[in-house]
Structure formats: structure tokens, C-alpha cells
């Protein structure tokens, strides 16, 4: 079965491919294989590090891909691309050469709606401390993150969140104007 996957891309440290912008462009090419095809990629954006003050500014983007992979295999594919670009998972939310986050996989809610709701309702402090042992889809913090939603506006403004029923455009519009303004196009 072919599914559309959404993923967010970020970099704030040089990789073997070069600068954060070059790293992201390299990741777009590296993603394509027999079971994974990039359909659309956003412009590149500069955004403050998340959480605020956690390193240099990021270059962010978003991608829509078509895949026959399962969500877990898709995530493993993204992690392999990160590793090929020098990503080391030593500090959570620290500087990184490449961060590829699976944001949505079709209209799937994984592992189930009650678990998704639990993760989506965590306080920011709890979300900073806890890490799920399983893949949670769609990303439970998606609606809070301008650095994900603004790039997604370029490639998937009409994608509908399978739990909330809101489109990417509606979620982005609900963000504070100051949060949206922090996400600046590079070109």
C-alpha cells in the first residue's frame, strides 16, 4: 500500500555534506529509493533553536513523500539518512547535523488514540523529560511548533490531522503571530 508521509527537516550544525542548508538539500536526495519518493519539499527557513536558547538557529524544511514502507520502517529510513549525515544522538534537543522527524503517515494514529492523546496532553515540562518507547503519530506536538507548521504550509496546507480534524493551515493560523514570525524564509 502506498502512503503519503510528512516529515520535518532541521539542521543547525555542519555535516559531511556541508552547511545546514546544504545538509538539508542533501537529505532530500538521500531520501529517495525504491520504496520512498519525495513528492514535494518546502523552501528553507531559519528558526530559533528549540527549546529557546538551545544552540544556534536552525534551518528547517518540510517534505511530503510517497512510501510503501511501514511507519516504523519509514522512521528507520530517516534515521539512516541522519546517521549518514553525521547525526549523533547524545543530547536531546542539542545542536545536530540533521534531524528528520516523521510528522504524519497518511491518516494513521499510532499506536492508538488514547496513547496519542496522553502524549499530546503532556505539559511542556513533562514532554521535555519523557520520551515515548513507541512511535507516536501524528507527532503529538505538531500543532505547537511553528518551525514545523510554517514549512508544511508550502507542501501540505490541506493535510488534515486525523485526531483534531484541523488542517495544517488551520493549525498554523492558530499559532501566535510572534511564533510564526520567528520562522523566516531563507530565499
From TrEMBL:
InterPro entries, per the entry: Hppk (IPR000550), Hppk_sf (IPR035907)
EC code: 2.7.6.3
7,8-dihydro-6-hydroxymethylpterin-pyrophosphokinase domain: residues covered: 92-103
Entry-linked SUPFAM superfamilies: 6-hydroxymethyl-7,8-dihydropterin pyrophosphokinase, HPPK
Gene3D superfamilies hit by this protein: 7,8-Dihydro-6-hydroxymethylpterin-pyrophosphokinase HPPK
Pfam families (UniProt xref): HPPK
UniProt GO BP: folic acid biosynthetic process; tetrahydrofolate biosynthetic process
Pathway: Cofactor biosynthesis; tetrahydrofolate biosynthesis; 2-amino-4-hydroxy-6-hydroxymethyl-7,8-dihydropteridine diphosphate from 7,8-dihydroneopterin triphosphate: step 4/4
Record keywords: ATP-binding, Folate biosynthesis, Kinase, Nucleotide-binding, Transferase
EC top class, as a word: transferase
Keyword Lipid biosynthesis: no
Residues annotated as signal peptide: none
GO molecular function term, any single one: 2-amino-4-hydroxy-6-hydroxymethyldihydropteridine diphosphokinase activity
Entry keyword Metal-binding: no
Main function: Catalyzes the transfer of pyrophosphate from adenosine triphosphate (ATP) to 6-hydroxymethyl-7,8-dihydropterin, an enzymatic step in folate biosynthesis pathway.
Protein family: Belongs to the HPPK family.
Record protein name field: 2-amino-4-hydroxy-6-hydroxymethyldihydropteridine pyrophosphokinase
Biological source species: Vannielia litorea
